[in-house]
Design brief:
Oligomer: single chain
CATH topology of one domain: Immunoglobulin-like
Number of helices: 14
Strand content: 25-35%
Strand order of the largest sheet: 6-5-10-3-2-13-16-15
CATH architecture of one domain: Sandwich
Number of strands: 39
Largest sheet: 8 strands, mixed
């Protein structure tokens, strides 16, 4: 009996120690874990329906240049437990979401717009009370989340959303894009520190090649207002019917029922290559709005273009593996291969870190172009997407005097730092023209179009390999022939206010000049637009009095408010301001629009769940077509995706060359490279982690994971110094003091007689941002790290 008692005591103590150790280890893992998507692990529990979203469909009506869209999401619980369904989905970056309603059986509940926090409280209260409810929140201007609470067994709940957007043609081609799936986003934010608004990044995904778990459908009715020349749908198989010279009807082919893993794209051109030119007026009971769209002049001649310098920034992260990276390679081969001899260029590759082809831009010689293409061809894709540091580095490269710099970015945009990227580009707008290429079947259009907007450039989205050459040709045509500059608008006696945009950027393509705002009184006078086209003046006039107001133009107040909200939000990201937040909130409430600070909420009056708790299910998303599993998993490849700095010799740097056979003694002679790139790739030295010592309260594993996040950055600094400082240390020892919150309190680099201030500054800059686990049972902890040359 005594032996049995001792055994029981031993087992109890062992289990307690095991659980304590597990909890401690789990705490450290959780503190390390960042916001990230994950693959769906299907449960064997038949009680829970993990795929409650059964279908999503869209009905689109295009009248002139305005599209009105109705989205219907159908949820059904085929399990036995009540559910709360969470579904993250995209929309157009120009979408003004103005309505939502929920249907349960025969009951339809119209949603109300409320402040975001208030809407969330209403929803949570209804969920706890057992009422069915739906909540629509905006996480990004193009990323929304739908919550549907208390879906009972066998329930069918339909949620209907309505939005409108303005269609702006480029090269005389109109395009309507309906995004279908949100691609996985990469984030370095620790999960425990993330606000609720960022939690959507932790979303389940299916594996590459798996079809969407819900059906997809879309139909379009097009009334162009002018004769239609051609309608195409390059993304999906469709059935098209022309109803009259200026109207057409389009429906999705039944074979595309699983086509919800790539953007739906509709393009149309008007007869004679015309652009819708004219004015729309909306004379509402409280406010009056106008929209002016005018066709620009024709392209100017190439001889008036100044010399150009191009910086190509290429995303080679894990989400670009396969199809997207293949497109990027074709695009860059085309762009770089067609540079003019007078041009200069450089290439920067980025994933978790970045590598640059040369420290200064190279002349567009055949040798340099071929070397750049070989470098790009070797990329395979892997690791996270560190776009912000890559942009910083590209914009910091020395400029070529007398050249106009253009920065071209190729990425799928699967990042969560859109705001910081916009801020950087706005601050550096005077340094370069910015053009963004979105690569992939479902790119982050908010990032791509936002980069183009703040950079005064134009977004390019390539969804299929065969589009790369076409888009490259259009890009070259765009930048080589500016259409209209120094634009000025005089409204004369037409009494306008709150006009957008306040200033019109240069027009670089055959696309219209668009101006909209509010007006007072009766439309009268003459509006005059002036500018410079090539070497002559450009003038266009329009008479507002000749335009009749129409009830169908009621969408103008949504479009104006959405544009103003976007403008305020852009400025607010640059310099947060409570007054601007209040103004965005006011606009959202006044115009019944979804914003970052206002949400739609619908609550059923009936209590439907009694004495129970709903199981929360995150609706898994398909990976966008062509995106591989690397976008979600295999993040360890970050340290392998860019294994070396692609350094090229600068102007005048001397390189050895071996004489051809029979040309003499065979000795090595020296020659000036004259901007050419050495054929042999430079392999710089790299530092690696040799030894980690930690005091009690931390584990080596958790510290190592944090240090490895910055290893690429430290190596970039080290590689840049090692060639210019032969005496630089091949062994670096660092002592760090960590405070009770896991943040770096003090850092000391041991001086062994070869101290380098630049390297020390680099290490401090990157290590200060690290978040270590909180020391257990200690107010501080000490870490000793040794790096050695590899």
């Amino acid at each position: 009996m005594r032996l049995r008692y001792k055994v029981m005591i031993f087992l109890i103590i062992s289990i307690q120690l095991l659980l304590t150790g597990t909890a401690w280890a789990q705490s450290e893992v959780n503190s390390d874990r960042t916001l990230s998507p994950y693959f769906l692990v299907k449960s064997d529990d038949p009680e829970v329906d993990q795929l409650p979203l059964k279908s999503t469909s869209a009905r689109v009506t295009i009248s002139g240049v305005i599209a009105d869209v109705t989205i219907i999401q159908t949820y059904k619980n085929e399990g036995h437990r009540p559910l709360e369904a969470l579904y993250v989905f995209p929309a157009s970056t120009r979408a003004a979401v103005y309505g939502m309603k929920m249907t349960i059986g025969e009951r339809t509940i119209t949603a109300n717009i409320s402040r975001r926090d208030a809407a969330r409280q209403i929803y949570e209260k209804a969920k706890q009370a057992g009422k069915s409810a739906s909540l629509l929140e905006q996480h990004r201007p193009n990323v929304f989340q739908m919550n549907v609470a208390n879906i009972l067994a066998r329930d069918v709940i339909r949620v209907e959303l309505k939005y409108t957007e303005l269609l702006i043609p480029t090269d005389r081609v109109y395009a309507f894009v309906y995004p279908t799936v949100v691609g996985p986003r990469y984030s370095e934010t620790p999960a425990v520190q993330a606000p609720r608004s960022e939690k959507w990044l932790e979303n389940p995904y299916l594996h590459q090649g798996e079809a969407p778990p819900y059906t997809f459908d879309i139909s379009v009715n097009l009334a162009a207002g002018l004769p239609i020349q051609k309608v195409t749908c390059p993304s999906h198989r469709v059935n098209l019917q022309y109803l009259s010279p200026d109207t057409a009807s389009l429906s999705l082919d039944p074979s595309e029922g699983n086509g919800g893993n790539r953007d739906f794209i509709l393009k149309y051109r008007l007869a004679g290559g015309k652009i819708e030119t004219g004015m729309l007026l909306s004379d509402g009971p409280d406010e009056k709005f106008f929209l002016l769209m005018m066709q620009p002049p024709k392209q100017v001649v190439e001889s008036q273009i100044p010399p150009r310098e191009y910086i190509f920034i290429v995303d080679v992260s894990g989400s670009m593996h396969g199809f997207p990276l293949d497109i990027s390679k074709n695009l860059l081969k085309d762009l770089i291969g067609n540079l003019r001899p007078t041009d200069r260029f450089n290439v920067l590759l980025f994933a978790g870190g970045s590598s640059v082809l040369a420290e200064r831009s190279l002349a567009a010689t055949q040798n340099n172009i071929q070397h750049a293409i070989r470098v790009i061809d070797r990329q395979r894709g892997g690791g996270g997407t560190r776009l912000l540091p890559a942009l910083n580095r590209a914009l910091s490269l020395p400029k070529t005097k007398g050249y106009s710099r253009t920065v071209v970015i190729a990425t799928d945009g699967y990042v969560s730092v859109e705001e910081q990227v916009f801020d950087l580009m706005r601050n550096r707008l005077g340094d370069a023209n910015m053009f963004a290429f979105g690569i992939g079947s479902s790119v982050n259009r908010h990032l791509i179009e936002g980069m183009a907007r703040v950079g005064m450039g134009e977004p390019f989205v390539i969804t299929r390999p065969d589009e790369a050459t076409e888009k490259a040709v259009r890009f070259r045509k765009l930048i080589q022939s500016p259409v209209l500059t120094a634009i000025n608008v005089d409204f004369g006696e037409f009494d306008v206010f709150d006009v957008e945009p306040r200033s019109i950027p240069d027009v670089l393509a055959d696309r219209p000049v668009i101006i909209f705002g509010k007006y007072r009184g009766k439309p009268r006078g003459t509006i005059e637009i002036r500018g410079i086209s090539g070497d002559h003046n450009f003038v266009r006039k329009i008479n507002p009095a000749d335009v009749r107001s129409a009830q169908d133009n009621g969408a103008l107040h949504y479009l104006w408010a959405r544009h103003r909200i976007s403008l305020l939000s852009d400025y607010n990201r640059l310099r947060p301001n409570d007054e601007r937040i209040r103004e965005v909130t006011r606009l959202g409430l006044h115009y019944n629009l979804l914003t970052a600070y206002t949400s739609f909420v619908a609550v059923d009056s009936q209590v439907r769940l009694v004495d129970g708790q709903a199981t929360t299910v995150k609706q898994p998303l398909p990976l966008p077509q062509g995106v591989s599993d690397y976008a979600v998993g295999n993040q360890s490849l970050a340290r392998k995706s860019i294994s070396r700095v692609l350094a090229a010799p600068s102007v005048g740097h001397r390189q050895p060359r071996t004489k051809a056979p029979g040309s003499g003694s065979g000795k090595v002679e020296q020659y000036a490279a004259q901007d050419s790139v050495a054929e042999k790739e430079v392999k710089p030295s790299r530092l690696s982690l040799k030894k980690i010592t930690v005091s009690s309260g931390l584990t080596k594993g958790s510290v190592k994971r944090q240090l490895e996040k910055k290893l690429l950055k430290i190596n970039a600094c080290y590689s840049a110094l090692v060639n210019t400082r032969p005496a630089i240390n091949d062994r670096i020892e660092i002592e760090m003091i960590i405070d009770s919150s896991g943040r770096l309190e003090a850092l000391k680099i041991m001086d062994h007689g070869k101290k380098d201030r630049k390297l020390e500054k680099c290490i401090r800059q990157h290590f200060e941002k690290l978040q270590f686990p909180k020391p257990k049972n200690a107010s501080k902890a000490t870490i000793m790290v040794t790096f050695v040359l590899k």
